[in-house]
Write a structure and sequence with these properties.
Blueprint: E1 11-13, E2 16-18, H1 23-31, H2 44-58, H3 65-72, H4 76-80, H5 86-97, H6 114-132, H7 148-158, H8 168-199, H9 203-217, H10 224-237, H11 243-267
Antiparallel strand pairs: 1-2
Amino acid sequence: MHPTTSGGRRFRVAGRKAAAPDPARSLALLWGSHTKPGRSGLTVRAIVDAAIALADVSGLEALSMRTVAERLKVGTMSLYTHVPGKGELTDLMFDQAYGDLYADPDEPLNQPGGWRGALEFIALRNWEVLTAHPWIHEVPTMRTALGPNITRKYETELRPLDGLGLTDVEMDSALALVLTHVQGTARAGAEQLRTQRDSGLSDEEWWRQISPTLTTVMSGTHFPTAGRVGTSVGEHFQSAMDPAHALTFGLTTILDGLTPLISSRSAVQ
């Protein structure tokens, strides 16, 4: 399945490394009730929503069971009766972040433009989630337990590619190609915003500061192509990159590449 694309995970808790969550326990939590309150009145949904709100501001590394408990104004131990630890909580957060991705399973399929319009819509919706929740980039997803929302997402995103003559493996690969482009570009955009925040400089201010020196050191015969192209990009975007442009350019190129493949498969059906 395409939804998982990174390596294994470990979490740092109170200065030490914590073991990865138990996948079977995470799976049971993901598919269990999230709205049934415990004796304290807490629900899994309330815990996950609080954790997402904190991670949206401070990132996943700064998140802990203690900070979630403080936000909910409960004791930390109250959380452990619902969620065993940060690893399982992260699985729940990851799944919940994609909970409202589509209005219904056929929403992408019903977009104008056929399979291409559907994939453009899918790319945009994923982009919106990734830019709203940049901590998602910190979640290693190769073996993230597949919850209901991620499973529903996969079903929904495959439907526009079904019946075009592609094999099942080609359908998965085509979707993964689009999604990994979106994820990579969104990750670069998140890093760009983080750098702006940490430095206190906008990209335009940063470019104005380094442009004269960069032009000097890259002039001459040593870096003729890099100097010309880098200067053109910097002057055009007033930055090292423009994530929105990168998303559109890459997506158009990917879909252009898929077009002859799908056309050839459709022709022999």
